[in-house]
Amino acid sequence: MREQRRKDAVWQFTTYVFILVMTLVMLVPLYWMIVAATLPQEQFIQFPPRLYPGTAFFENFAALQERTDFVRSIWNSVFIAVVYTVLSILLCSMAGFAFAKYEFRFKEPIFYLILATLVLPIQLLVIPLFLMMSQIDWTDTFRAIIIPWLANPIGIFLMRQNMKSIPDALLESARMDGATEFQIFYRIALPAMRSSIAALAIILFLFQWDLFLYPLVILETSANYTIPVALSGLEGTQRVYYDQIMVATSLAIIPLAILFLVLQKQFVSGILAGSLKE
Amino acid sequence: MARITLTDLTKVYDPDGEAVVAVEDCNLTVDDGEFLVLVGPSGCGKSTTLRCIAGLEDITEGRLEFGDTDVTTYSASERDVAMVFQNYALYPHMTVRQNIGFGLKLSSKLSSSEINDQVESVAEMLGISELLGDKPKELSGGQQQRVALGRAIVRKPEVFLMDEPLSNLDAKLRSDMRTELQELQQNLDVTTVYVTHDQTEAMAMGDRIAVMDKGILQQVGPPEEVYRQPVNEFVADFIGSPSINLLSADVDGSTLLGPGGFKYDLGNASPVEGHDRVRVGIRPEDIRLVDGGPNRAEVTVVEPMGNENFCYMELEHIEMTARISPTQRPTAGEEVAFAFDEAALYLFDAETGDALKTKTDESPDNIHTEVST
């Protein structure tokens, strides 16, 4: 009995140590990023490194702003990600609703075809998409960044799976109450899907926020650059502006952190939706 | 208000090209203001029939009329019907007030204060006024049921449809709600079609009951008529609790010879003329335990019910039930003699199951027979 209890305690201790180490492994780069953002370039590269914050944040930021108009890039990224997220949620929910609740010809094959597009890497799509965009004269525009990715296969899949859990009787009841099919969708199905939509919002926002190669190819004017594209400009051929990169990346995670904090509760329950019997 | 007329209504499902006939050639009229109960075992087509009336399923063949209007091709919302679902189907994100008012908000031109007034008067009628601000998940099963009813009533529909609305409630609440529903229906005087698999519920609630089996309407009539004059063995067996006792017997002139030495002399042999073999039915309440006689069975279990005893017996592997007086208490394993009156006897064709003779023990003159197949 006592032997067993000691074993348990040892096991628990080891688990906590492991978790602590893993947490540090993840936090250290984040901490270093923030510290480095406050150091002038000389202190950044000194050895042993300085591990506590300095005072050069605003100088670094001013230099960054001068080089890239970074405030403009943040605005561009936020605008594109927000518009994309809203439109894509609408599209993915409608598609998910149709796949989950309506019968039509070739429903299954179409759905699996959409899922199959998941295996295509972005790198493969960049060139054909660029050619298409230049044919319709959309290069260097935000709509070229937003529209091609609206029908997101992960989003459609997620919404279809969750929409399946809506009881048919609920929709039929609304139908008998005189609701049109579109009213059933936005008055009954969408509100019932709140937590899944929160989860999807984070996934979609993150996808667009991190998109790099495609906007790099499409966007030409620096005033249109998104954050990842603007950042890439800081890696010159002669010199890499680490101090400015660190300021930029520190700032770039703030909108994501806010979004996650706001949607956190729904996000977790959305990801876990259907895993437990309610 | 409206009379509902189903003419040769047929519903065929076609999953993967394999046709399944759910309802076949159903002819049925539900009178204006009538409470009709559709009853049958699961999979008999009763819910499908209801869903066809509701407009939730397309009608494959046949016609559906409300009053003089052919509504066969109308959508659910155009038919002016309200339905109460088995699991209530309340909108989870709306309050009780919004749930009840949703239909009015969508389909009527009333102002929001008029809608509010109507919602409140319906809530008062159902005794749920204090719940109007709650969400469905905060309510008990019985309260959810009332909200579902309120949602149907508030629209003042031509027709009420109810799909096993009481089956999710516990036994006590179910019998309370049963009475309440009947009163409500009588007060509102709306044509109602009620689906259930519970024959007790059907007998207790319906002005008339319609028994279905395998997609075919077997019999329609007042509860007592269906009980006393079933058109076939299925109806006789399905209606009544405990179920009717059934056994096969050979016909020898005017004598019935069954298993385990069962023997019965008919005073009137005309119903069995031309039959070598028939099915014999006797209701449990018509069996008497007697001191001696040719028909004997072995008692297996006696269940005391307080006001009566259920005596389960075996007649050569055929289970039989008798409802006997609480003072009679045979013991398990005992062999008892039983008897019954010819007037209480049912006889069915051994092949088709059609009724050859039904109960004649009380004056049947005042019972009007209406048979529809």
Automatic annotation (TrEMBL), chain A:
<feature type="transmembrane region" description="Helical">
    <location>
        <begin position="12"/>
        <end position="34"/>
    </location>
</feature>
<keyword id="KW-1003">Cell membrane</keyword>
<dbReference type="GO" id="GO:0005886">
    <property type="term" value="C:plasma membrane"/>
</dbReference>
<dbReference type="InterPro" id="IPR035906">
    <property type="entry name" value="MetI-like_sf"/>
</dbReference>
<feature type="transmembrane region" description="Helical">
    <location>
        <begin position="245"/>
        <end position="263"/>
    </location>
</feature>
<feature type="transmembrane region" description="Helical">
    <location>
        <begin position="110"/>
        <end position="133"/>
    </location>
</feature>
<feature type="transmembrane region" description="Helical">
    <location>
        <begin position="74"/>
        <end position="98"/>
    </location>
</feature>
<feature type="transmembrane region" description="Helical">
    <location>
        <begin position="145"/>
        <end position="163"/>
    </location>
</feature>
<feature type="transmembrane region" description="Helical">
    <location>
        <begin position="184"/>
        <end position="207"/>
    </location>
</feature>
<keyword id="KW-0813">Transport</keyword>
<keyword id="KW-0812">Transmembrane</keyword>
<keyword id="KW-0472">Membrane</keyword>
<dbReference type="InterPro" id="IPR000515">
    <property type="entry name" value="MetI-like"/>
</dbReference>
<keyword id="KW-1133">Transmembrane helix</keyword>
<dbReference type="GO" id="GO:0055085">
    <property type="term" value="P:transmembrane transport"/>
</dbReference>
<feature type="domain" description="ABC transmembrane type-1">
    <location>
        <begin position="74"/>
        <end position="263"/>
    </location>
</feature>
<comment type="similarity">
    <text>Belongs to the binding-protein-dependent transport system permease family.</text>
</comment>
<dbReference type="Pfam" id="PF00528">
    <property type="entry name" value="BPD_transp_1"/>
</dbReference>
<protein>
    <submittedName>
        <fullName>Carbohydrate ABC transporter permease</fullName>
    </submittedName>
</protein>
UniProtKB/TrEMBL annotation, chain B:
<keyword id="KW-0547">Nucleotide-binding</keyword>
<dbReference type="GO" id="GO:0005524">
    <property type="term" value="F:ATP binding"/>
</dbReference>
<comment type="similarity">
    <text>Belongs to the ABC transporter superfamily. Carbohydrate uptake transporter-1 (CUT1) (TC 3.A.1.1) family.</text>
</comment>
<keyword id="KW-0813">Transport</keyword>
<dbReference type="InterPro" id="IPR013611">
    <property type="entry name" value="Transp-assoc_OB_typ2"/>
</dbReference>
<dbReference type="InterPro" id="IPR003593">
    <property type="entry name" value="AAA+_ATPase"/>
</dbReference>
<comment type="function">
    <text>Part of the ABC transporter complex XacGHIJK involved in the uptake of xylose and arabinose. Responsible for energy coupling to the transport system.</text>
</comment>
<dbReference type="InterPro" id="IPR047641">
    <property type="entry name" value="ABC_transpr_MalK/UgpC-like"/>
</dbReference>
<dbReference type="Pfam" id="PF08402">
    <property type="entry name" value="TOBE_2"/>
</dbReference>
<dbReference type="InterPro" id="IPR017871">
    <property type="entry name" value="ABC_transporter-like_CS"/>
</dbReference>
<dbReference type="InterPro" id="IPR003439">
    <property type="entry name" value="ABC_transporter-like_ATP-bd"/>
</dbReference>
<dbReference type="GO" id="GO:0140359">
    <property type="term" value="F:ABC-type transporter activity"/>
</dbReference>
<feature type="domain" description="ABC transporter">
    <location>
        <begin position="4"/>
        <end position="239"/>
    </location>
</feature>
<dbReference type="GO" id="GO:0055052">
    <property type="term" value="C:ATP-binding cassette (ABC) transporter complex, substrate-binding subunit-containing"/>
</dbReference>
<dbReference type="InterPro" id="IPR008995">
    <property type="entry name" value="Mo/tungstate-bd_C_term_dom"/>
</dbReference>
<keyword id="KW-1003">Cell membrane</keyword>
<dbReference type="InterPro" id="IPR015855">
    <property type="entry name" value="ABC_transpr_MalK-like"/>
</dbReference>
<keyword id="KW-0472">Membrane</keyword>
<keyword id="KW-0067">ATP-binding</keyword>
<dbReference type="InterPro" id="IPR027417">
    <property type="entry name" value="P-loop_NTPase"/>
</dbReference>
<dbReference type="InterPro" id="IPR012340">
    <property type="entry name" value="NA-bd_OB-fold"/>
</dbReference>
<protein>
    <recommendedName>
        <fullName>ABC-type D-xylose/L-arabinose transporter</fullName>
        <ecNumber>7.5.2.13</ecNumber>
    </recommendedName>
</protein>
